[in-house]
Amino acid sequence: MTQNDLFGRDLIQRDREWHPPAYAPDYKTSVARSPKLALLSLGNTASELTGPTFGHGDIDPVDSDLLRNYASTGDPIGERIIVHGRVLDENARPVPHTLVEIWQANAGGRYRHRKDSYLAPIDPNFGGCGRTLTDAEGRYAFRTVKPGAYPWRNWVNNWRPAHIHFSVFGTAFAQRLITQMYFEGDPLIAKCPIVRTIPDQRAIDMLVAALDLNASVPLDSIAYKFDIVLRGHRSTYFENRPEGN
């Protein structure tokens, strides 16, 4: 049984030139992480393609609201935003009922992680994590605060652009794709050594969420729209699946 048999969908050949090389010296940690031998292509088994997934009963409605899901003494500090979009396949068809998770730094650029030593303070009312299931049309939405930029030890003065990490599960736990979303108009995007490993500007543009004033809430939250394309010639770049499959 093939993946096409399971889903009844034609799969588009992936474009390997759409994705960055594993070895990129200006992104220093890629030097140690890059493979020394040729990659192997392994097909999924039927059990990997049809394993258990999350259901609506596993997700609390507050899980997608990062303004509320960790707060105990007040609202998180920072610019209130809505991030929304759709999860789509290579033919722009919606991917319904799939688990989407996010994690991010707070408004000061610091993660709630014991190894994050950046001098920005921890926000006691912001956990930085959320999750939701797409609806029947592949739509998702999160409320959160806009994350801050932060320095990182690549070269002497490198700063990561404001970004949110996304994880999307497929039809089973073995199918998980991870990417990052950036914000329209951020000048740090073009200067980031990680972003600059991506060879095609169009691929970079697909990682940038567009300002969406129509979805913004007046006097409350600014909205950004970020669609995720799972595979095909113009799939979203996934950092844990650099071959684009």
TrEMBL record:
It comes from the Bacteria. It holds the Pfam family Dioxygenase_C. Keywords: Dioxygenase, Oxidoreductase. It is an enzyme of class 1 (oxidoreductase). GO terms for molecular function: ferric iron binding; protocatechuate 3,4-dioxygenase activity. Residues 13-43 form the Protocatechuate 3,4-dioxygenase beta subunit N-terminal domain. Coiled coil: none annotated. InterPro entries: Intradiol_dOase_C (IPR000627), Intradiol_dOase_core (IPR015889), Intradiol_RC_Dioxygenase (IPR050770), PCDO_beta_N (IPR024756), Protocat_dOase_b (IPR012785). Residues 50-232 form the Intradiol ring-cleavage dioxygenases domain. Its EC number is 1.13.11.3. One of its GO terms (biological process) is 3,4-dihydroxybenzoate catabolic process. SUPFAM superfamilies: Aromatic compound dioxygenase. Belongs to the intradiol ring-cleavage dioxygenase family. This is Protocatechuate 3,4-dioxygenase subunit beta. It comes from Thalassococcus profundi. The gene is pcaH.
